[in-house]
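Please go through the protein record below and see whether the fold suits the sequence. Record follows.
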Amino acid sequence: MSSPTVSAPTKVRRHAVNNRQTRYALIFLAPAGIGLIMFYVVPALRGLYFSFTDYAVLTPPTWTGMANYQRLIEDPLFWNSIKVTLYYVVLNIGFQTIIAILLAVLLQRLTSSTLIRGMALLPYFIANVVVALVWYFMMDYQIGIVNVVMDGIGLDRVAFFGESAWAIPTVAFINVWRHMGYTALLVFAGLQTINKSVYEAADIDGAGEVRKFFSITLPLLRPVLAMVLVVTVTGSFQIFDTVAITTKGGPINATRVIYYYIWDLAFGQLDFGYASALAMVLFVLLFGVTLIQLRLMRANESDEL
């Protein structure tokens, strides 16, 4: 059966409508596109250029080629910042993901109250700086309520931000507390997409809650978990606020994460050329980590039939 022919005037009208819709779409996208170019693309290209120069703001940049990249290879502070950052990422992502998944499952199974579910998000709505300050005073060695309670029950006080062994775990704990509700919300949204008939079939087969969690929930959540891990890992590598407020990279560089080191080089030492080189390395590192995560998690696949 042949398809009906379309008259020339109809084709012209359709073409005109498509052109008009395209123009309207471009008009609405223009503000976001201009902002993307001005605040992301242009600074990124300038940063790439500065990474090959010796630039201290007060003097014009001087082209140095690969000198900054050769310098970072021999920079012990750079490698220490990478090590510290990876340690933080492992702690933060490990605990945050596990707690968020359990919290999301509990919110789905135990309550349908929007109020209770919304309360899990409250810490995320508090600014990073405020959260860091509150926990900084609560965990202060002398007057912090956490140490006061520990002292009251006979435990030794702990310098959470003053001891190298405790500093990064404490920073990770603060950020897990703030972000686990948001991560749980993303996982909770993924749980809503799982067909309930799968659980009903498992109930008929006599599967328990633990078996259903590992055999149904986790496999079917894989695409969502891949997205969540990409977002949280990328954010974890960019940890800055909590460190800047609480420890300022100390004690003895124990919390000098890569983002704080870049900031200190650029705005503390005015070494924008070398700081830009480190920023480029961080970009490449994050890009590589994201690709590896998506590949390992098979983010574009689902086990649901």
Remarks:
- The mean pLDDT is 88.
